[in-house]
Amino acid sequence: MREKILTFIEKNSRIDLKELAVVLGVEEAAVMNELEAMEKENIICGYHTLINWDKAGVEKVSALIEVRVTPQRGMGFDKVAERIYNYPEVNSVYLISGSFDLLVTIEGKSLREVSQFVSEKLSALDSVLSTQTNFILKKYKDHGTIMAAKSKDERIQMIP
């Protein structure tokens, strides 16, 4: 039942518990108890709303920053990642494979604000060897949701 609940709420965290119970064929109380247990176990870590800031008219700049670091003795990458994710500007930090070690996502009000964060805070950390900043220019799909407007069929319909 856990996996089914997680699958449903990952796509729609606002689903009504009664509706979810009906879909799963169980009692509403069972769904509520399972959700509470998964929250306590940190299986469910939070509930988020996906916002299209462009449509809201709010200026935001998002960036993916690839970071190469020197792992700390006995701690690996965890301690460096912790220092980075504690900055309020940072949305997420991932340990990745490839030529960089960490992928950091941040948001700011302008290109300058993001660039200043990278140069003054992130690059200044002792463990950071190099960074590469990739600004997000347009989101087509985010967290499984298509963000781009659906293209219209502009072909001329021929009637026989």
Automatic annotation (TrEMBL):
Phylogenetic classification of the source organism: Bacteria, Bacillati, Bacillota, Clostridia, Lachnospirales
All residue ranges annotated as the Transcription regulator AsnC/Lrp ligand binding domain in the record: 65-138
Protein origin, superkingdom: Bacteria
Xref: InterPro entries: Dimeric_a/b-barrel, Tscrpt_reg_AsnC-like, Tscrpt_reg_AsnC/Lrp_C, WH-like_DNA-bd_sf, WH_DNA-bd_sf
Protein name according to UniProt: Lrp/AsnC family transcriptional regulator
